[in-house]
């Protein structure tokens, strides 16, 4: 359970930092009048939707941290046999990076009001994300063809479970992305479009990060890394 | 007296007005509503309905325990199914949904001075997914093989094996699917509660001016958002084990002479995931109760809450600590002694902020102008009950005491006191307190008094003897214990007594339900602020509050939520949105 505890420690650190800016030492029984003008005591100047997405991503992060924790605990048992990772995963990783870059370009363009670049970026991101999902399915097909079935070994089970869960999140993101894309053609107000492109980009970067972490986990580098850390500590 | 800015009225806030969704038809106004208040009532009604099912299940269990051998229709399988569904419904579908989905939805926007939740559409979805989860759960009663009988903790491997009711039928699958749906729905609602508190507070409503109710619900929601994923992961993995034949949790097992295809999995892994959710869940239920009870006591004792800052810090502290105590539910599963030591220590440390809260409640009462209204009675009963339940928690938090007691009725008595009776007393108190705001009418006082005394005394008559039975060594989880040495004559008599009391308390709830319905039409007119309270929900222009809550302009907050009996003020309460200082020199509490 150490992975999830470390994750929560990060969240707690962030929450503590935020709380420390909220005048928790104030004595509200002595203070009267409007004190909302003190900077930072009202809501954040960031758009509410961004805060909402941020909180949601913390929950998603928690979910994957828990899967990782379970992965490590199950891995320690004797019947674990790592499976060879299909090469197509490297290609998928590249595609997903492209997708993130395209959305980043789109969000920069949206801020500058270049609607054509925004459209191009959104479509590219959507297509590359689809390509990523197809690539993941290819990886599954390759593994099953080679006899690495879901139930054969816990390592296989975790591979399908975690990549599937990540794929579902990408799929959900695609639903949001397609709404944004339709909006980019149907003339949504520029500031609104800008916000929703930025939200998509944020979600995409986060899922890319999660994918890189998962990739490292499934490839076994994460375990090696932790082993090195443990040796350094003891 | 520190005036941060001149205390005169200031021009209306620059808080951005949110665009409200305006319903066009009866359907979008009352059924598929995006108004947090309607959603709150939908949540509460659904939770109460499924809670009544759980109440009936507890009666059936008590019938069997009190009068073993008398009721043929309660087979061992049925008994386990009753236990499982009773526990799961009460903890998740009633308590969590009612505190966060019900009170959270109703009170957060009103108390922080917002028009509505920040994402009303998502909020509406949250309710409908919750309803779907409840329906899936209820459908398992009608599935072949009936609901799961795995115990509310759903421990593998037994949860998905043939010997357990529903293990190889539909029961366990429906339970897991229902939980997964619940978590998805809750996450949608939870995002709303958290972000509304963060972003939609009205002008002047700093965090340290929030009523403690909001602090409690806010912190509990943050915890729930971080803890429920653990249950989600456990459920998904168990669903894989059950339906696809993986071995996440399932060790190699021979069942009825036949080797199952599972092998090598770890049941302990499930326990870790489950309790990583399960322990914070206790405080997800308790923290809103703490918050609400603070407000009830302060309002009905006409006195500012003692040690507001400490109360806030304690809430946050309890929330953080509750994530590092989960393994104290697993002492009997065996663990390294150092781990046991660690978890026993953290468990005992959590008593410190909790005790601070109890002291502060008592000191708020000290020399207060106590009005023994029905909500106040329930609040006082909560303090007593929570202390009682908490004290036995100190016993069970220690490894050496827990191991012999863990499988006895003592544990049943402990957790029913601390997370069953105590939060439910707060729910009742809160309903008596806020019902006038929701409906515009007071609940009937006489029926309320009757409901309180029967529930409060009855709950003690149920659970105090149960501690004793547990100490005698009567084990929990057994369908029948007729001819065993631990079941002495007196234990039998006590069991029968407990069962009769359980029926009595159950019937008192019927009076309460009748009161809820009867008072909608026949209750005394309440007016906008019957308790003469300071918080913003009592200052709305209309009662019940209209869509948008606050009429044309949002209120501006000039003071904290607890200005009761301020010396020099005209009345014994000053609402949060009243400007100006009143010539007092109150000492810091």
Automatic annotation (TrEMBL), chain A:
Signal peptide span: none
Record-linked PROSITE patterns: COX3
Membrane-crossing segments per the record: 50-77, 89-111, 117-138, 158-182, 202-226
Keyword Metal-binding tagged: no
Tree of life domain: Bacteria
SUPFAM superfamilies: Cytochrome c oxidase subunit III-like
Membrane topology: Multi-pass membrane protein
InterPro entries with a match to the protein in the record: Cyt_c/ubiquinol_Oxase_su3 (IPR024791), Cyt_c_oxidase-like_su3 (IPR000298), Cyt_c_oxidase_su3-like_sf (IPR035973), Cyt_c_oxidase_su3_a-hlx (IPR013833)
Family affiliation: Belongs to the cytochrome c oxidase subunit 3 family.
Name of protein: Alternative cytochrome c oxidase polypeptide CoxO
Species of the source: Mesorhizobium ventifaucium
Automatic annotation (TrEMBL), chain B:
PANTHER family linked to this entry: CYTOCHROME C OXIDASE SUBUNIT 1
Name of the protein this chain belongs to: Cytochrome c oxidase subunit 1
Record flagged with keyword Protease: no
Superkingdom, natural source: Bacteria
Known pathway: Energy metabolism; oxidative phosphorylation
Topology relative to the membrane: Multi-pass membrane protein
Catalytic activity, EC: 7.1.1.9
Translocase found in the keyword field: yes
Catalytic reactions on record: 4 Fe(II)-[cytochrome c] + O2 + 8 H(+)(in) = 4 Fe(III)-[cytochrome c] + 2 H2O + 4 H(+)(out)
Function: Cytochrome c oxidase is the component of the respiratory chain that catalyzes the reduction of oxygen to water. Subunits 1-3 form the functional core of the enzyme complex. CO I is the catalytic subunit of the enzyme. Electrons originating in cytochrome c are transferred via the copper A center of subunit 2 and heme A of subunit 1 to the bimetallic center formed by heme A3 and copper B.
Protein family: Belongs to the heme-copper respiratory oxidase family.
Compartments, as annotated in UniProt: Cell membrane; Membrane
